[in-house]
């Protein structure tokens, strides 16, 4: 079945390509070849009018206007092909767990390229640098910046910078010089190349590529420190790469003679300007975005659009000023994430996240497919065994040496030293990718006689790293027993304790009089809270910023979600009505007073794995929610069963969640359905048992409260149970789920207290007579409820037992 | 100030502190000069007001409790040894110490001792249990205080405290004992989270 679908899809792709080529062939005269001009994928005809040109004899009902739609059609078709390739790749899950998706996509690119070539058409579709750098790369990097775990990133910033700057320079220098030395020694035969060109080549091949790193490390969940090192390095080394590339390019143009100390100093200065300038541009745009989202309350529907446009503009602005565009867009994403998530409406936040992922994923797919296709172009292939093999050897060996050297120096200053195994994985994870290819394709053929050789070598290096190292990464990580990412979510105690630790460390640093890492972070926090949040966040967002409160809110949301899910599974939420302590008051507590809260908690580097639940809640459950902790509070005070057993079954425990899982395609937490079910069943069972075992009338006398009241105090019934406030039982009064023999006893007991026996049939029905016994309730509330109670008799009478 | 300060600290004392706390010679000297700079009364001990003079400590939610932690039971002054002893809890655990002779007493910066320090921050009355109220007090202090308008009701804090205790409590006494505390934090990298780098 899967095979058939696979073949069918491949056939479709083949067919699409052929159709396109045929159409192309009939319309276009000469083959285009891979053109270095800026151009969209494929040929770009400017069609002023219909392409046919011949005189029209009569009215044509239908015409085939290919040229009219050619350019956008081809683009759309290629995107479709890339998407279909991804679908084909993901068909077989066992395959993707062994071979990373990126490698398979390159493979499909080869196949497609082969089809196109075999059809006789020259390569019209290659990954041109313009398309790559302007249309495909920005969204990948924006996605990386937006989802970056900030706390982790900045606490390891020093190490990341060392690897990015010094490491890349080291790689560039050693590879370039090594190749030059070998060329001098004659290992490469006779090629027209010089020292500067070697250095240039070294600088473009030295950089670790973010796209490749994400693609490969996504499958392999290494521990977060290791991941952030490699990933952060791949993002930040763009500053160095851009500078080195431009500097050596200029040197090659100038010729060797013109280089003197002044030029070299200029080169070093330009590094600082490019790197810091790029970051500054990004930060400015982040400020702009945050300020903008502060004011977009009335146009929430297009709020998400601003993020993308401004992000893209930051990229282009930096590019325009010849600063580092990647650094710009990365810092834009990093700096704005907190504020826009706080300011924007939940739906907008969700939209931004998903759209970001769609774009990034799509771009990545297209990039890899085209990397494959670009290979099938005989015009660029120049084979020089020495050059290619030596390049491969050098980048591999010098990467290892560089990483180990730098780590040895860094470990002297780090609190937690990087282990040997982590260093091995870091060296091995230095993958090269499309950025290198984009850079090499931008070289001028006239200045670089051996451009094709370099292009071929770059492609081979990219294939080698992505495919070979990608495939072997997972087994290597398993074999070396690298520490993997933590799978379980932090418990509440751990979260609070982490906060305590932070405060503790700051205090100790203050006392011992040294300016340490924690001190700086604390100072930044204070500054941020006082000034930045005031400036960049909406007032309502500011109120709900507190970490502890957010924890609390999240937990309640989770509980509520789970109860609702269980209720839906069982057909209704009536099981809630059974419960002695179902305290249905979430709505009152949270909706009324905190209606604008952002449940998206990104405080403290929890990754954006929390789906905003309350938006879903609003749709399903207008007024039901559970305040479980309050119930248990009551229980422990009044009942005599083992509270801690019950409490251990609480839903928020033991839920598996992938924290910091930097995943291209998975945004949500891993909700283990079976686990949730099981917990529910256990909880429900024990509740029913407790219900049975309670001595006094544990009848849940529930009041209807249809009004939001300002402060909810857990109402205590005389027998110590809290009341249940539920609305007009929107889930059907007719549900008999509760009736497991308890109804009788409940009703019996209730009957003693509540003369209105008729109401006691359903355990969860309000009893107006009972209301008078509510102590904490003031008369006001009582007054409010009686009219609502009056509604009940009708609904009850319609109930047919 | 430097030379005068170190001359007040005798070599044997430095050696003793070194053995007890594991700090290096230069670290001890450096911390001694810090001690003397805090000691305005110049009587060789620090009182609570000396600590409270540190400006950043005043805005730290746990500032008071940490200051308290320096002073042994019932005393109001702490000398340099006591000062170092408390600070030693925050020394990073080094690799060569991990394989120490198990019969030797626990170094001050071992995981257990670090956790004990953290535990005692909560447990003010020293009854070896963190009760709900004690936890509530800490939570109240840690809640954002700088911004106006963030008011979390005691009730909500109370429920957080309840849930935290529920998670940790195993014997049902509605409080967290030291062992339960250790168990709850077993996955946390305490060695890293409770260490600072002392400059040489």
UniProtKB/TrEMBL annotation, chain A:
Region Disordered, residue ranges: 30-52, 691-744
Protein name in the entry: Sodium/hydrogen exchanger
Record keywords, A-Z: Antiport, Cell membrane, Endosome, Ion transport, Membrane, Phosphoprotein, Signal, Sodium, Sodium transport, Transmembrane, Transmembrane helix, Transport
Organism listed in the record: Salvelinus namaycush (Lake trout)
Compartment(s): Apical cell membrane; Early endosome membrane; Recycling endosome membrane
Feature: compositional bias, Basic and acidic residues: 724-737
Catalysed reaction, written as an equation: Na(+)(in) + H(+)(out) = Na(+)(out) + H(+)(in)
Basic residues bias (residue ranges): 704-713
InterPro entries the UniProt entry points to: Cation/H_exchanger_CPA1 (IPR018422), Cation/H_exchanger_TM (IPR006153), Na/H_exchanger_3/5 (IPR018410), NaH_exchanger (IPR004709)
Membrane topology, as annotated: Multi-pass membrane protein
Lineage summary: Eukaryota, Metazoa, Chordata, Craniata, Vertebrata
TrEMBL record, chain B:
A Pfam family reported for this protein in Swiss-Prot or TrEMBL: EF-hand_7
InterPro entries: Calcineurin_B_homologous, EF-hand-dom_pair, EF_Hand_1_Ca_BS, EF_hand_dom
Keywords: Calcium, Cell membrane, Cytoplasm, Lipoprotein, Membrane, Metal-binding, Myristate, Nucleus, Phosphoprotein, Protein transport, Repeat, Transport
Record-level GO BP terms: protein transport
Superkingdom of the organism of origin: Eukaryota
Primary location: membrane
Molecular function GO labels: calcium ion binding
GO cellular component, one term: plasma membrane
UniProt-annotated location(s): Cell membrane; Cytoplasm; Nucleus
Domain EF-hand: 110-145, 156-191
Record family assignment: Belongs to the calcineurin regulatory subunit family. CHP subfamily.
Listed name of the protein: Calcineurin B homologous protein 1-like isoform X1
Gene that produces this protein: LOC120036022
């Amino acid at each position: 079945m899967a095979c058939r679908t696979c073949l069918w899809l491949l056939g479709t792709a083949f067919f699409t390509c052929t159709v396109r080529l045929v159409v192309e062939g009939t319309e276009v005269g000469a083959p285009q070849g891979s053109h270095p001009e800026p151009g969209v994928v494929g040929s770009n005809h400017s069609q002023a009018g219909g392409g046919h040109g011949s005189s029209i004899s009569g009215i044509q009902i239908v015409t085939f206007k290919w040229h009219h739609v050619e350019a956008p059609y081809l683009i759309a078709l290629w995107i479709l092909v890339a998407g279909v390739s991804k679908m084909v790749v993901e068909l077989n899950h066992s395959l993707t767990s062994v071979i990373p998706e990126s490698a398979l996509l390159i493979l499909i690119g080869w196949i497609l390229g082969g089809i196109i070539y075999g059809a006789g058409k020259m390569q019209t579709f290659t990954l041109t640098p313009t398309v790559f750098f302007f249309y495909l790369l920005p969204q990948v990097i924006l996605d990386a910046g937006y989802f970056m775990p900030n706390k982790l990133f900045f606490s390891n910033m020093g190490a990341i910078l060392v690897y990015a700057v010094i490491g890349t320079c080291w790689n560039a220098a050693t590879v370039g010089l090594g190749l030059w030395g070998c060329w001098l020694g004659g290992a490469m035969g006779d090629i027209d190349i010089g020292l500067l060109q070697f250095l240039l080549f070294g600088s473009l091949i030295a950089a670790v590529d973010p796209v490749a790193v994400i693609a490969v490390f996504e499958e392999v969940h290494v521990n977060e420190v290791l991941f952030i090192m490699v990933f952060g390095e791949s993002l930040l080394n763009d500053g160095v790469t851009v500078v080195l590339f431009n500097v050596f390019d200029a040197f090659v143009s100038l010729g060797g003679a013109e280089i003197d100390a002044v030029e070299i100093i200029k080169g070093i200065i330009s590094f600082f300007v490019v790197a810091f300038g790029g970051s500054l541009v990004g930060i400015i745009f982040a400020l702009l975005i945050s300020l903008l989202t502060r004011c977009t309350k009335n146009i929430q529907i297009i709020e998400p659009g601003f993020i993308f446009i401004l992000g893209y503009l930051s990229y282009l602005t930096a590019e325009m000023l010849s600063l580092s565009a990647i650094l710009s867009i990365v810092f834009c994403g990093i700096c704005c994430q907190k504020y826009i998530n706080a300011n924007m409406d939940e739906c907008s936040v969700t939209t931004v996240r998903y759209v970001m992922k769609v774009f990034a994923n799509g771009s990545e797919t297209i990039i890899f497919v085209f990397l494959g296709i670009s290979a099938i172009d005989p015009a660029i292939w120049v084979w020089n065994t020495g050059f290619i093999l030596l390049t491969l050897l050098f980048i591999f060996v010098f990467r290892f040496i560089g990483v180990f050297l730098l780590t040895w120096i860094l470990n002297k200053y780090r609190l937690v030293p990087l282990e040997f195994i982590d260093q091995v994985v870091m060296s091995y994870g230095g993958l090269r990718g499309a950025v290198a290819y984009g850079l090499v394709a931008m070289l001028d053929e006239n200045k670089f006689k051996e451009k094709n050789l370099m292009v071929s070598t770059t492609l081979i290096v990219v294939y080698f790293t992505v495919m070979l190292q990608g495939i072997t990464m997972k087994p290597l990580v398993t074999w070396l027993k690298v520490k993997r990412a933590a799978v379980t979510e932090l418990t509440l105690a751990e979260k609070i304790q982490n906060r305590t630790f932070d405060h503790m460390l700051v205090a100790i640093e203050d006392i011992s009089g040294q300016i340490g890492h924690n001190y700086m972070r604390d100072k930044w926090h204070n500054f941020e809270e006082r000034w930045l949040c005031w400036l960049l966040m909406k007032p309502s967002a500011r109120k709900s910023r507190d970490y502890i409160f957010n924890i609390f809110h999240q937990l309640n949301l989770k509980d509520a979600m789970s109860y609702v899910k269980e209720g839906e599974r069982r057909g209704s939420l009536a099981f809630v009505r059974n419960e002695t302590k179902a305290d249905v008051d979430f709505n009152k507590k949270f909706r009324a007073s905190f209606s604008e809260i952002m449940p998206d908690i990104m405080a403290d580097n929890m990754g954006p794995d929390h789906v905003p639940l309350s938006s879903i809640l609003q749709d399903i459950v207008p007024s039901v929610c559970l305040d479980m902790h309050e119930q248990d509070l009551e229980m422990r005070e009044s009942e005599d069963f083992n509270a801690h057993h019950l409490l251990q079954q609480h839903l928020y425990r033991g839920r598996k969640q992938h924290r910091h899982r930097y995943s291209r395609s998975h945004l949500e937490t891993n909700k283990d359905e079976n686990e949730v079910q099981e917990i529910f069943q256990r909880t429900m069972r024990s509740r029913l048992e407790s219900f049975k075992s309670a001595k006094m009338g544990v009848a849940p006398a529930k009041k209807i409260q249809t009004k939001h009241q300002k402060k909810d105090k857990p109402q205590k019934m005389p027998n110590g149970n809290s009341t249940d406030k539920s609305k007009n039982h929107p889930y059907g009064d007719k549900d008999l789920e509760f009736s497991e023999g308890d109804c009788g006893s409940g009703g019996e007991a209730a009957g003693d207290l509540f003369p209105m026996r008729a109401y006691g049939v359903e355990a969860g029905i309000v009893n107006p007579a009972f209301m008078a016994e509510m102590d904490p309730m003031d008369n006001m509330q009582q007054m409010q409820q009686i009219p609502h109670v009056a509604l009940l008799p009708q609904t009850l009478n319609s109930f047919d037992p | 100030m430097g030379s005068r300060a170190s001359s007040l600290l005798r070599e044997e004392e430095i050696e003793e502190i070194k053995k007890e706390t594991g700090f290096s010679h230069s670290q001890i000297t450096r911390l001694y000069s810090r001690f003397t700079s805090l000691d305005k009364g110049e009587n060789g001990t620090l009182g609570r007001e000396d600590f409270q003079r540190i400006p950043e400590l005043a805005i730290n939610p746990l500032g008071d409790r940490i200051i308290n932690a320096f002073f042994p039971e019932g005393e109001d002054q702490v000398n340099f040894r006591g000062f170092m002893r408390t600070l030693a809890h925050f020394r990073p655990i080094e690799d060569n110490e991990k394989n120490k002779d198990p019969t030797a007493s626990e170094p001050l910066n071992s995981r257990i001792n670090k956790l004990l320090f953290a535990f005692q921050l909560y447990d003010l009355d020293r009854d070896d249990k963190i009760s709900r109220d004690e936890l509530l007090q800490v939570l109240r202090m840690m809640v954002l205080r700088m911004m106006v308008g963030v008011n979390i009701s005691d009730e909500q804090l109370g429920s957080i405290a309840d849930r935290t205790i529920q998670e940790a409590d195993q014997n049902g006494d509605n409080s967290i004992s030291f062992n339960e505390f250790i168990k709850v934090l077993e996955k946390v990298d305490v060695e890293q989270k409770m260490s600072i780098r002392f400059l040489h």
